[in-house]
Amino acid sequence: MEKDQTITALRNGICNVIFTKKNGDKREMRCTLEASLLPPMPVVDENNPKPVRKSNPDVVAVYDLEAQGWRSFRWDSIVSFSNGA
């Protein structure tokens, strides 16, 4: 699956991703980028802004529905991807 298709699937619903972690373990994750399933954006303190992270095209950040938090994985570590979880 192409990156654009994967991102579109994540934005349109819940997906299952199996990937290999850096330590070699396999990880299965139910995740999404669908706006209605994401937590509210935190209020930003204008007096104490967080540093902006550089974008890494080799990594995708997703919301893990089971862990209830943001997680990321590398594109080249994907073992299996399916949408419609």
Unreliable stretches? none
What do the pLDDT scores average to?
91
Structural category: mainly beta
Run of helices and strands: HEEEEE
Radius of gyration: 14 Å
Whole-Å distance between the termini? 17 Å
Q: Report the β-strand fraction as a percent range.
A: 35-45%
Tell how many strands the DSSP assignment holds.
5
Lateral arrangement of strands in the main beta sheet: 4-3-2-1-5
Describe the structure.
By secondary structure, the protein is mostly beta strands. The chain has one helix and five strands; from the N terminus they run αβββββ. It has a five-stranded antiparallel beta sheet, covered by helices on one side. A hairpin with a 5-residue loop joins strand 1 (14-20) and strand 2 (26-32). The radius of gyration is 14 Å and the shape is globular. The protein starts with a helix and ends with a strand. The mean pLDDT is 91.
Summarize the structure.
The chain is mainly beta and 85 residues long.
What's the SSE blueprint?
Blueprint (H helix, E strand, L loop, with lengths): L2 H10 L1 E7 L5 E7 L26 E6 L4 E6 L3 E6 L2
Antiparallel strand pairs: 1-2, 1-5, 2-3, 3-4
What are the main properties of this structure?
1 helix, globular
